[in-house]
Amino acid sequence: MAAYCNSIAKLFKLLIFFTICSLFVHRSTAAYSIGVNYGTVADNLPPPAQVAAFIKDQTTINKIKIFDANPDILRAFANSGIAVTVTVGNGDIPAIAKLPAAQSWVANNISPFYPQTKIDRIAVGNEIMATSDKNLIAHLVPAMKSLHSALKLSGITDIQVSTPHSMGILSLSDPPSTGRFRRGYDRVIFAPMLEFHRRTKSPFMICPYPYFGFVPKTLNYALFKPNHGVFDKATGKNYTNMFDGQMDAVYSAMKKLGYGDVDIIVAETGWPSAGDPNQPAVNLENAVSYNRNLVKHVNSGRGTPLMPNRTFETYIFSLFNEDLKPTTSERNFGLFRPNFTAVYDVGILRNGQRVGSTPATPTAPASDPNKKWCVPKAAVSDAALQAKHRLRMRLGGGLHAIQCGGPCFEPNTVRSHAAYAMNAYYQANGREQFRL
């Protein structure tokens, strides 16, 4: 009997050992979840249906935020399980402050897609306080209330209403305990807004960007790299990264108004992977450091010094590099290029996929630094591209790569196939523009 009990005890210990081991193995290989801002200021992005399939099948991104209510995007994410935040355009805010217009907006932009598309939040405008437009600012909270009422009247009770804010809403933020909303707006705008959030159990949305707040001596502090930290004498808390400092500054401002219990989510944050020559801190290495550490940090559940053990819903800016943005840095905030290759890996690729730290923008092969590529202009119609494509097929051969089953068949669109055919002909004929 004693031998039997000893055997059972040994078996039980082994079972515990292997269970613990399996937990550690699972944790070490688990990918992180994160939200992303899906911006579309570009003329080379893939169709929304392909974007939805890519996010669902190839990444652990579980929520997206868009800057409008694009019906093609909303249709594409139907039945995907991906949560979607849609945005009311800034210019629509004064109108939807009145209930009939808000009801019309919901009928046109939400009801046709919900609940097949998992719309979980509506952002009323984007960083309205930063516009300094008094008309928009005055109508912001009424529009939020009106839209919430319109949703309820439509029988929709699980879509939250909020609005994103830049860090410019604070008059003080350093050290974090001094955080305070701008005078004049604190009681008139933010107190009633936070009361709305408390009543509707919706979050206060902020856009903390250490990228916009660092100076050379605080670069490591902004990038989650080793640094001496910033000590807040009032609270006795030491801050080792600027993200936590910005978050706690907002929390301090909310608490001063009596709303420290309202949830906070990060509507935007990020770091560009390429910039102009006068931006030495804007490079691939720093983008990797910020975004990769950010993803780990917000998934850790550690919270911040003033908000410990809290997890913050976070949206990185942005999903893709957007080529129509005005500056180099603005065009290079993306985690992915428009062809779905990763600019760099932040730990959100499925099935153990990894990518190296590849350049943020395509570079020509070392053997030919002057190599150019031929791509169609955005304004050219599909019909014109189809005609040009057929001509190139006759002149330049069969181009098996874009035929069904070929390695470049997908995406199966006129623009994609025409671009391949035109570029193949261009490269094969000495890259002479007059022959196109």
End-to-end CA span: 90 Å
Instruction: Please report the first level of CATH classification, the CATH class of the largest domain.
Output: Alpha Beta
Strand order of the largest sheet: 5-4-3-2-1-13-12-9-6
Uncertain stretches: 7-30, 354-373, 389-398, 426-436
DSSP summary: helix tally: 13
Structural class based on helices, strands and sheet pairing: alpha/beta
GO cellular component, one term: side of membrane
Signal peptide: 1-30
Pfam family, one: Glyco_hydro_17
Family: Belongs to the glycosyl hydrolase 17 family.
Overall description:
- This protein has 436 residues and is an alpha/beta fold.
- The protein has helices at residues 2-29, 48-58, 71-76, 93-96, 99-109, 134-153, 186-200, 210-213, 219-222, 242-256, 284-300, 382-396, 414-428; strands at 34-37, 61-65, 83-88, 119-124, 160-162, 164-166, 170-172, 180-181, 204-207, 230-232, 237-239, 264-269, 314-317.
- Helix 5 (99-109) packs across helix 6.
- The chain is globular.
- The N and C termini lie far apart (90 Å).
- 38% of the residues are buried.
Describe the protein's topology.
Blueprint: H1 2-29, E1 34-37, H2 48-58, E2 61-65, H3 71-76, E3 83-88, H4 93-96, H5 99-109, E4 119-124, H6 134-153, E5 160-162, E6 164-166, E7 170-172, E8 180-181, H7 186-200, E9 204-207, H8 210-213, H9 219-222, E10 230-232, E11 237-239, H10 242-256, E12 264-269, H11 284-300, E13 314-317, H12 382-396, H13 414-428
Parallel strand pairs: 1-2, 1-13, 2-3, 3-4, 4-5, 6-9, 9-12, 12-13
Antiparallel strand pairs: 7-8, 10-11
Helix pairs in contact: 5-6, 6-7, 12-13
EC number: 3.2.1.39
Signal peptide: 1-30
GO molecular function: glucan endo-1,3-beta-D-glucosidase activity
